[in-house]
Model the fold of this input.
Amino acid sequence: MTAIADGHVVEMNYTLTNSRGEVVDSSNGKEPLSYIQGKQNIIPGLEKEMTGKKVGDSFKVTVVPEEGYGTRNEAMVQSVPKEQFGPEASNVEVGMRFQVEGPGGQMLLVTAVEVKENEVVLDGNHPLAGETLSFDVEVVALREATEEELEKGEVQKESKSCSGTGCC
Done:
């Protein structure tokens, strides 16, 4: 196997910076990120650029909002009465994240962006929505995905136990 294609498990090291050059995320000092190419496990703009790359390739990718976390939608910023947070209302702070039920019953992750005396302003946009993102990427491993991985759509981690007893 020489080049990344759909159905391959890819391991990569990366550093992600936002449009201001601030490091947002990195695999530095951690395990490489593993994903299955073609299963939409990573943002579309990065996945598209990974196609055809090989183990050992290092490159930079710039991803526009439309191919990343989307453009900001101001309709997803709303004020809600502080009393909706119940007895914990006085503890709500800017930056806290909450799960709320959306209009179609789906669960949404929102962030408190402003806390007023009687209301909290919540933002349902992804924190990186509207950002042009830059990735420094190094492809470190590549293999065919197993049938189970393809079926589940995610990389299955190998067991770390040596003998099945959990004692190494």
In short: DSSP finds two helices and nine strands in the chain. The CA atoms of residues 35 and 41 lie 6 Å apart. The beta strands are 8-17, 23-26, 33-36, 58-63, 77-81, 97-101, 107-115, 119-123, 133-144.
